[in-house]
Design brief:
The complex is a heterodimer of chains A (about 300) and B (about 300).
Chain A lengths: L1 H27 L14 H10 L6 H13 L14 H36 L4 H14 L3 H15 L15 H27 L2 H8 L4 H38 L5 H11 L2 H29 L7
Chain B lengths: L12 H6 L3 H11 L1 H18 L1 H4 L30 H37 L1 H15 L3 H11 L4 H11 L2 H14 L3 H8 L4 H12 L1 H25 L10 H10 L6 H28 L7
Helix pairs in contact in B: 2-14, 3-5, 3-14, 5-6, 5-8, 5-9, 5-12, 5-13, 7-8, 10-11, 12-13, 12-14, 13-14
The chains are: A mainly alpha (about 300), B mainly alpha (about 300).
Chain lengths: ~300, ~300
């Protein structure tokens, strides 16, 4: 198991390196530089700035400098947030996004799995059709429609929550529901299919024949197997949530990584953009690794493959 | 499992005349699926209305600042936006862009996906392992981040938007086509083609690609909504279609910003967007059941 984790870990290093290279050179191809502002800067000041950040060197030299620092874990200084290091900026904003992500994932998994499993217990009955129709509607209501609608209902009309900001615990409710609710629809469909498949297998019939209660059959025997497709889906869902959080952070005005990325891309803040792309990629590669480990734990047969 | 087109000729002639062909059978199955037919009708209606908008709708960019944002009335069925522009025509023109992005980007992604998958599946062995490993790695990356990067670097141009979205949505198609090709490759008509001395290129283009078209059509209808969603996300964040042009994503963004005072600016575009996604999903499901009856749901 440890060897498997180690091997996968080694595999991610070249991937991240390629991403770093690709993003670096892509950003170098942009026409405008980070110091082209609406206010005219004098050519001397611009030159000074470029010299300060090493932008006057040839591109390949800048690249080697960047990669050299990257290996030491230094993502370089931000071009727009003067005096700030990219690593510091990420470290400051990530907890906010992480918190939002955790709540959203909890919402998605809780609603998705419970409704999916309930639907699977009695296929083609009311308890199947009702949650599944809701899931289909949910998939067609993207976050940027759902979020403002929730604000309109619970923020403005009913006044239960603040419509934007990230100060109190209650400010977490609407963003988490928006982000998590959307993915719960996907998860509930997968959970339903997984549970139906497991329940039709021989060992479930055996368990029933031996007189196990329905409760025991579902929780003790079927659950572990039915979780597998959900876990497989969790990694890509989390990756998508990163994107989803761009939207949700914009709607609810949350000071997380997503807002930083969008502004950095607009500002052509090269180091911050490359740093964030790398950070996202590393994060997602890690999540995939965790999902794989959990999958092997759920299904020991995979260990031999 | 697909029904290979090449094997159907083995049936005796009388049976072919009486039995339904693959396509006739598919049409019949599709027509029985009410939700799918409803979805198809909505998408077609929207497409026709969007295309014909210049003929009957008010101009989408005519401002009327003194008029401002007004609630829906008999004159403006969906009301007007902050600049006094008719929302109905903006929604129709916006749907035009959204549908165009959906169709063009899907086309780009399918072309890449089908050929990548067909080549990988047909070559097999080491090249297949390497090509699929690349897909696995790409799958794990946050692609919207890259699309945003591309839009920033090459300017916000709509053709580029098609390309950028298409370039990131081909992965699933490539996987599915590869799986299909792997099973097709072992069938007799491919063996016959090899025995006849056809080159690899000809086998892939003439025999393999046509046989995976059925499944490609199904995934095309399922890719269109996800592409439209991506375009809407980009436009919502300000990286997509630029004003005065509008797409449904741009309109939803404008609506979300004015939600407190003028909620109809969000509800109408949002409703249209959701209905379109809803219809396309049902249409895709219906096509899958019709063309590929054995495919499992989900």
């Amino acid at each position: 198991m440890l060897r498997f984790i180690f091997k996968r870990f080694l595999q991610t290093i070249p991937v991240l390196f390629i991403i770093a290279t690709l993003t670096f050179f892509l950003m170098k191809m942009t026409k405008g530089g980070p110091f082209d502002t609406e206010k005219a800067t004098t050519p001397e000041i611009k030159k000074q700035l470029e010299a300060h950040y090493g932008l006057n060197k040839p591109v390949w030299e800048q690249y080697i400098d960047y990669i050299g620092k990257l290996i030491q874990g230094d993502l370089g200084p931000s071009f727009k947030y003067a005096g700030w290091n990219v690593t510091e900026l990420i470290a400051g904003a990530f907890p906010v996004s992480l918190e939002l992500g955790c709540y959203a994932l909890a919402v998605a998994l809780a609603i998705g799995m419970i409704s999916g499993f309930i639907a699977a217990l009695r296929p083609n009955s009311v308890t199947d059709y009702l949650p599944m129709s809701l899931a289909t509607i949910g998939i067609c209501l993207p976050t940027f429609v759902m979020g403002p609608l929730l604000i309109l209902t619970f923020g403005i009309a009913l006044g239960w929550f603040n419509s934007s900001g990230w100060f109190f615990l209650s400010d977490r409710v609407l963003p988490a529901l928006t982000l998590g609710g959307y993915y719960s629809a996907y998860i509930s469909r997968i959970a339903r299919t997984g549970m139906i498949e497991v329940l039709s297998q021989d060992f479930i019939r055996t368990a029933r024949a031996k007189g196990a209660t329905e409760w025991r059959v579902v929780f003790k025997h079927a659950l572990k197997g039915a979780m597998q497709p959900v876990v497989t889906l969790t990694a890509p869902v989390t990756a998508h949530m990163v994107t989803g959080s761009f939207v949700v952070e914009k709607i609810f005005d949350i000071p997380g990584l997503g807002r930083f990325f969008v502004t950095a891309a607009f500002n052509r803040d090269l180091t911050l953009v490359v740093g964030l792309v790398l950070f996202y990629a590393a994060l997602i590669v890690m999540l995939n690794l965790i999902a794989d480990v959990v999958l092997v734990w759920l299904n020991p047969r995979l260990r031999f493959e | 499992m697909p029904v290979p087109i090449a094997t159907s000729t083995a049936l005796p002639v009388e049976e072919i005349e009486q039995g339904a062909s693959l396509w006739k059978d598919a049409v019949r199955r599709f027509a029985r699926n009410q939700m799918a037919v409803l979805g198809l009708s909505f998408v077609l209606l929207l497409a026709i209305a969007a295309l014909a908008a210049p003929l009957f709708a008010q101009p989408y960019d005519k401002q009327n600042l003194s008029y401002g944002a007004k609630a829906p009335s008999s004159e403006h069925w969906m009301g007007t936006d902050v600049l006094g522009r008719d929302l109905l025509s903006r929604v129709l023109y916006g749907s035009r862009i959204s549908l165009a992005v959906g169709i063009c980007a899907t086309f780009v992604s399918l072309t890449i996906g089908v050929f990548y998958g067909a080549i990988s599946g047909y070559l097999g062995g080491k090249p297949d392992v390497v090509m699929m490993r690349i897909v696995d790695i790409l799958y794990a990356l946050p692609f919207t981040v890259f699309v945003i990067l591309l839009m920033v670097i090459f300017g916000r141009n709509i053709i580029l938007l098609f390309m950028a979205i298409g370039a990131v949505e081909w992965l699933t198609v490539a996987r599915i086509v590869r799986g299909q090709v792997l099973s097709l490759r072992r069938q007799e008509f491919i063996e016959a083609a090899i025995a006849l001395g056809l080159r690899k290129r000809a086998i892939i283009l003439r025999h393999l690609v046509p046989n995976v078209l059925g499944i490609t059509i199904i995934y095309a209808t399922l890719t269109v909504p996800s592409v439209m969603l991506l375009e809407a996300v980009l436009s919502f964040l300000g990286f997509g279609v630029q004003p005065p042009m509008s797409s449904l994503g741009v309109l939803i963004d404008e609506g979300a910003r004015n939600i407190e005072e003028f909620p109809w600016l969000l509800t109408f575009p949002g409703l249209f967007f959701s209905l379109t996604l809803f219809s396309l999903n049902f249409l895709g499901d219906g096509l899958r059941d019709a063309l590929d009856p054995k495919a499992a749901k989900d």
